[in-house]
Amino acid sequence: MAEYTKKEQAKPDKKTHRTRKITFRLSESEYAQISDDLTISGLSISSLIRKRLLCVRVASRADLAVLSELRRLGGLLKHINNETRGAYSSLTAQAIKDLSAYARTLTERHRADSPEEN
User: Fold this and answer.
1) What pTM was computed for the model?
2) Which residues have C-beta within 8 Å of that of residue 51, sequence separation ≥ 6?
3) Using CA atoms, how far apart are residues 59 and 80, in angstroms rounded to an integer?
4) 63/53 same-domain check
5) Is residue 9 in a domain?
């Protein structure tokens, strides 16, 4: 398999029409793994395989939902802090710090699970 560096990988233009087709066979275990990855990522099979071949990170749908919720909760905590004029500033600051730490953990785990970019 050819190795590509980040500079060699051309990102497809949104207007690019994909006209080339590749078909290949998989073992049952390979197909089961791809099926699991499809469920986790929420992508189409074409998108998943394309991203994997081009070494693009694929985030799980659950992780993206959790990150979105963490951002929303952080915004609500900031709103509470502003509305109470900082009456609970130490509590909201700690909660925001904890949310940020968990978001970083998810992001780092995603980076560790993804193929390395050269």
Assistant:
1) 0.46
2) 43, 57, 58
3) 31
4) no
5) no
Residue 65 sits in the same domain as residue 115 = yes
Angle subtended by helix axes 61-83 and 28-41, to nearest 10: 20
Question: Do residues 84 and 22 lie in contact, with contact meaning Cβ atoms separated by under 8 Å?
Answer: no
pLDDT at 10: 53
Written as one letter, the residue type at 82 is: N
- Give the tens place of pLDDT for each residue, 26-69: 999 999 999 888 888 888 898 888 888 888 777 777 777 788 88
Domain residues for 71?
59-118
Alpha carbon 66 to its chain's center: 11
Tell me the per-residue pLDDT of 65-87, one tens digit each, with 9 for 90 and over. Answer: 788 888 889 889 989 888 988 88
**Contact predicate 103/70, CB 8 Å:** yes
Report the C-alpha gap between 111 and 59 in whole angstroms.
9
Output the six-digit token pair for 5: 């560096």
